[in-house]
Each structure stands twice: as C-alpha cells, then as structure tokens.
Amino acid sequence: MYEQLRKYILPELIPSGTRVMVAVSGGPDSMALSHLLWRYTQEESSRGVSIVLTHVHHGVRRESDAEAVMVQDMAKKWNVPCLVHRFNAKRYAESMGQSFQEAAREWRYARWKEDMLKEGCSLLATAHHLGDQAETILYRLLRGSGTAGLAGMYPSKGSIIRPLLSFTKADILNYCAREAVPYALDDSNQEPVYVRNRIRLELLPELERSYNSRIQETLGRTGELLRWDEEYITRQVKAAWDQYHYQDSQGTICLKLDVFKEPAAILSRLLRKAAMQVTQEPRGLGFTYVAMIMAAQGKPGWSQDLPGMRVKLTDEGLQFCRSHIDAGQKALNYKIPLVIGQSVEIPGSGMVISLLKEWNLSSVNSHTKRENKIAVFSSDLLTQVSKQSLVCRTRQEGDKMWFKGVGHKSLKKVFQEAKIADDARNRIPLIADEAEVLWIPGVRQSGLYRADNEDEKIVCILTSRIGRSI
Amino acid sequence: MYEQLRKYILPELIPSGTRVMVAVSGGPDSMALSHLLWRYTQEESSRGVSIVLTHVHHGVRRESDAEAVMVQDMAKKWNVPCLVHRFNAKRYAESMGQSFQEAAREWRYARWKEDMLKEGCSLLATAHHLGDQAETILYRLLRGSGTAGLAGMYPSKGSIIRPLLSFTKADILNYCAREAVPYALDDSNQEPVYVRNRIRLELLPELERSYNSRIQETLGRTGELLRWDEEYITRQVKAAWDQYHYQDSQGTICLKLDVFKEPAAILSRLLRKAAMQVTQEPRGLGFTYVAMIMAAQGKPGWSQDLPGMRVKLTDEGLQFCRSHIDAGQKALNYKIPLVIGQSVEIPGSGMVISLLKEWNLSSVNSHTKRENKIAVFSSDLLTQVSKQSLVCRTRQEGDKMWFKGVGHKSLKKVFQEAKIADDARNRIPLIADEAEVLWIPGVRQSGLYRADNEDEKIVCILTSRIGRSI
C-alpha cells in the first residue's frame, strides 16, 4: 500500500515543497493516512513535503477525550504540529435546524480552512477510501444524479486530496495491523439509521454477496470513467459559458438565443450554471426545470417563476432574474406540469409537490413528515394526467372550483370562506387541470375527480423541502 | 398513455409514411404496444404510418401455441400482416454453446431484420418499458460500465424505436385492462435465476421499498442525462477519429501520436474504437487495457499483445494490428500487471485471470465453472502485489521457478517434466513477480509465497471467458 502511494499516487497529488493538513478523526482510515503521509515525508525527505494534523473533538461520545489524546500523542512522537478543536456539534445542530451530521461537517470544514491559512498548508488530505466512494456513488444513484454526481469523489479537487480513494477498508485495516497503527472505532458509523449508513452496512454487502463480489472496485472504476467525461464536458461548458452569457446591472444573467443550438449535454449545464449564479442554490436546478426551460425554445415571451428566480425568454435570449420573495409582495407566476411519480419544488415556497399512485403511498408515508397535506383523486384524473394537463400553478383571473350539490364557486369565494389573507392568496400553489382548480393544498379539495372506494387512486402530496427523503 | 404517445412521443420517433415492424411476444408489454401503434395508424391516418406484426413461436413452453394464435387473431381483426416464426431455440443454444436467452435473442433479431426487408419496414418497435430501463441500468452498473452503458437503452437508435421506454409496467397493465387488450404472462420471467431477473424481482423492489419509492423514474432520468452526455461525446469522438486515424494496407489501424494530447474522455474512446475495428469484439476493450495503453504515452517501442490484437507505440503513433493466433504459431508477447480484486482477459486464450483476497472466494466459487484452475499464495505476496510487480505474461529467456528442497529449476525443465508440447510452451500464460515465475496455471505452482495455514491468503484463478459472471 505504502509503495503504491509512494510511487504512483502521492507524487501526483502533492507537489514538492507542499505543507499538507491531515484531517484525523482517530478512526483507522485517518490514522492510517497520517501514518502513510508521515512515512512519505520521512522517506522521501528530498521532496520537502511536511504535514500538520488537525483533530475535532466532538464532545458527544465518552471516547472523544481518549481519541484526542491518541492523536496528540502520535503527533508528538512524530514531532509534527497537531491542532485540536473542541466543539459541541449537537447543540449547534439544534440551534441551526440542521442534522447533526450536516452541522458537524460544515463546522469541521470551516475550522480546517482557518487551520490551513494559519499553518501555511495549501492542501487538505482526507481519508476517504474505496468503500466511501462506492457508497457515495450508490447514494447519488439512488437519489438521482447525472454524470457529475455519479463520478463520485475526486482524488484531487481544489485544495482537497484523497490519497486512499482507490484502497479498500480491508487494505487500510491490514496496514494498521502490519504497522501497529493505533485507532479508535467510531460506533455511530455502525448504526444503519442514516441512509448512507444503510447503504454501507446493508446494500453494499448484499450487492457484494449476490451480484458482484468486486462491487467496490467496479463502482470505483465507473466513477473514474465518469470523472473523465465530466472533466471534459466541464471544460467545454466553460468555453461555451464565456461565449453565451452576459450580466446586466441588476445582476440578471442572460444567455444569448443561440444557446439553444448547443447539444443537450452543454445546454443543460449552461442552464444549471446560470440558475446557480442567480439563486446561489448549491444543489442546482432539478431535471424537471431544466427540461422545461429547454422546451421553451422558439416561444419568445415565455416566462416562468422557478425556485428563487424568474426565467424569461425574450428576443435577445434567456434571462435569469433573482426573485425577491423575501419581500412577500411580488406576485409569482408559474405553471408547472405534474407527472405521476415525480416531485417538483414549488417556486418561492420551500415546498415540494408530488403526484403518486396509491400503491406507492405506504413507502412515502414512512419517509415524509407528519404535517403532509394530501389530496386523493380518482382514476378519472389519470386520464387528465396522461394528457399532461395537470399543473401546479399560481392564481389566474376567473379561477373557480366545483363542489357537489353546490356547483362552481369562484376561487375568491373559497379563499374568503377559508379566511385566507389577501396577500397570501397570490402565493398559495394551486393544483388544476386545464379548466379549473382541483385542490388548494391545506385549504380545500374540489368535488371533481374525488376518489370513491372502487377507483384506482392518485395521491397528491405537499411536503416541505427539508422533509424530502431520498 | 395513448394521448402522451400521440402528442409527444410517436411523432418524434416515427416519420410520416413509415411502415413499422412491431415485435410481439404476446406478453402485456408488446400487446399494449401493438394496440397503441395500431390506434395511432387509425386515428392519425393522415400521417400514413402502417404496422406489421412479427411473432416468434419459441416452442419450449406449452402455452406457445395459444400465444401465436392470440397474436394472429389480433392481426386479422385489425387487418394488418402478421409473420410467425417457429423455432426450437433450446436445441439451437445447445449446439452453439450459448445460453438459451442469448441464442434466442440473436435468432430473433436476425429474423426481424429479414422481415423488415421483406415487408418494406424501416423501423422495428420493441416494447421495453421504464422497468426494463431501470433493470438495464442497474445490471450495467453492477457489471461495471461507463457513461455509454449507464445511459441505458435509447428511445430511438438506428432502426429500433422503444416508444414505451418512459412508461411503467403498471401504466401498461392499466392500459391493457382499460382497453381490454388480451395478453399472456411469460412465466420464465418470474424466476429469479438469471441475474437480470434477480435485479427485476429482488433488487429493484428492495430499492423501491427501502431507499427511493420512485427508483424507476430516478434511474430513467439518470439514463436520459447520461444519454445527452454520451451523444455529445460520441460526436466529438467522431470528429477526433477522422483527425487521428489512418489504416495501412494490412488492415492495421494507426492513431497519430498527437492523440495522447486529447483528454481522457476522448482518448479512451478512440482507443476502444481502434481496438473494436481490429478485433471486431463488440464488448470492446476493458478498462485495464485502456488504462495500460494510455500509460504507454512517451515510451516509444512499447508493445503489448492484447486479446485479439497487438498494440505498438512507434515514432509515428499507436498501431493496432490484428493477431493471427488461429494459426497457433506466432509467438505472443504480453505482460499484464495484476491488481487484487481485478480480472483481466489473457490475450489469445479466451481465458480470464483474477487475483482475489481469500474472503472473496466463496462468492466467486458459486459463480465460476468447476474446471477453475486455482493457486493460493500467502500474505507475503501481498507485499509484491502492492508494489505492482505481479504480472501475467508470456515466457521469457531464462525463466525459472523455485521448489522447496530442490531450489531453482529452469522453466524448460518444468515444462519437460509436465510433458507440455514445445509449441504450447510459448502460449501458456505465466504468473510471475519481477524475478521469477510463481505459477504455470494448470501445470505447477512454485514453492515461493505458498500459503501456510496462518497466513492471510491471496487466490489466483484462471477461468474461461464464457464462465465469467457479472
């Protein structure tokens, strides 16, 4: 393992004379990584590479103290600097409304960035291995991803390097045993609660047993092939971006009309890039929205509100303008086709609307939040949906709903009866077919297409984005 | 479903005036497809689209007769031609040494090609649906694949169209029930014996239950994104191919030296394309070999035998020459690094060599053939392997092997004792480290690095290519 790193991997990842910050949790992966890198600094001293260790004491487990001491002792023995940060991530997570893991991760990276500046390190080494890579690729595949996501983690990207990315956990444990590297086991990684843990502890072993005994290597290789493709396309997109985009004084991003001549691989990425620059949403623009904008080609005047922005097609090109929904005043205007089995985010609401067949309902219920708002429709709606006329949209002039024994009511009347404030009425998403409104989520479902017991049912669900499961 | 096909999908897939051959097994998918296409020819008669049905009577199941009658009756009712082919694929498969499914599939496509010519059809419609697409993508992911494979099946490629690719099995069954379309159920698809059936019947439902209730749609979408990328890169590769390749009078394909300046996404595909043109092997060149040729950059004089061809780096460029091993005379010359957890095909032998850790052995045994040839090495070899010095190669001047209590013997002596014919000696693959030969598969293992009971073990296995599992 050391020989492979010394000969082939580390010279590629670490330029001579570099000072490298090593993130050490105290587990076998990061302890082995530290040991390997330290050997490299000693045995290849002519390269002038040096290391600094950094450790985060999470303060939630009893073993945390002992781990910090173990890391510090090792650093002292090797005579390398070791920074230790103490942090109660749990309290932090509660106060920020994030998950523990997310919060801890963000906080760690922020500290490491500071440490690197302070210690003059230009690279940060993390101990991700082939098992982590396989898990990441499967996780992204299950959640939905394109080439960029399925490419997995990069051995080197920006200032982060992952020297162990092509080695298995077994290689690492074997190295620790052979070189008598001490380590602590992190129990929280052994609980199949988080989706990623379940992938690691249940799905990957099952795939290994029943489908491909070398699944980790296979996925790692797929990641490498896709990385080649993504790197190539990214370079092409960069050139295309310079060619097509310009920005006006209000921060609106425009793409020239010619952009539609680009093949889908390039066009879709340019749209995502424009959206990300406007909304600052790192997750980017979902597939449904990308496809919607692509379909706007040749329809000048087309305009659509999407989460965090409004997209317009003018004679000059595609405009991406930031929406200022924080003010709560500006009327939204969107019309999003709904497809059975798919979910879309509703602009300006942080909510997601899903259209599902009844038989998928059990699995959804277990994942989504209790406060779901649900409407159940009959199979007659199926005909509507397959004509693609069912939409989630904002209020329109003349909107009405039909109720049994009553007939049609204006939407205004329905809102009045439900005591919905005037300024909220223009922002509530509506589910409608071509003719009229079928459901105001959280307010009222019309009498049209209501399911009776014998029908095959379709279910429309409103969830908060946070509660979205993979 | 019909409305979506009529409005958005079929006009894209079928040009006006086209005669379409529809492959009908008699199952729900192909019966629904026939019905949908027939409706389209009737309701959109101005487009001048017509259909012809073709059915293969496999003659292995009792229900086969009834299915053929059902398809013919439907065709008669609609007044469209219906071709029926009768074939005992099982006997065919036995005589050809292929699996039943492979043989049947090849035979079917050959018949359809003939039928299309005979009936003047320019398109063949198959009934693959979203479930098939998800299964295909997972199958390829588990077997190992890049962008091209993970892109899944195409809705339209060459003369094949797949109109139902974005619909689920449930959509299809629902359509059959609603329109009273008769169909037969194919029981052989319900047995989780074949890997693909296991993916459909076990893995996909498990992923749907535990990870993503919309996994089919998610995978279908991933396929679409990757298809965009693959189509784009394929176009770039086509241009690069014209720029770099030339062919000499002996059929050798050459790529100009500059080809190494291309990014990995393009270079790897050019290498695969050159190899495929020389060997006619539709599966293409494995990752290991692609990486090997890529690593030859800057080493003029480098040469390597690979399955079905020899690749040479000269001052002018990379040469891919077909090897004529059929003659059995020409000496081979290859040296392939072995990596733990990986398998490589041995040039000119139709055999595969795998290097595995002991704990993977159980899963391998169940998959591979009984006639495996196996050598077991001790953990000392691990050190050799991690130095990347273990290779599978052809015989070299001065080759020797070490035996306990005897010392070194020349390879010639070992061959003589084992009564290996002279002309075979240059073709038998050898497993060796940098200094000497460790194992002649099927002949003898040396005394070096032999495992004793306490060691962690590495296993080297020789299998035939046919017996290769996913």
UniProtKB/TrEMBL annotation, chains A, B:
Subcellular location: Cytoplasm
GO biological process: tRNA modification
GO cellular component: cytoplasm
Root EC class: ligase
Similarity comment: Belongs to the tRNA(Ile)-lysidine synthase family.
Main function: Ligates lysine onto the cytidine present at position 34 of the AUA codon-specific tRNA(Ile) that contains the anticodon CAU, in an ATP-dependent manner. Cytidine is converted to lysidine, thus changing the amino acid specificity of the tRNA from methionine to isoleucine.
Free-text comment on this protein's domains from its UniProt entry: The N-terminal region contains the highly conserved SGGXDS motif, predicted to be a P-loop motif involved in ATP binding.
HAMAP family: tRNA_Ile_lys_synt
Name under which the protein is recorded: tRNA(Ile)-lysidine synthase
Organism: Desulfosporosinus youngiae DSM 17734
Organism taxonomic ancestry: Bacteria, Bacillati, Bacillota, Clostridia, Eubacteriales
Gene: tilS
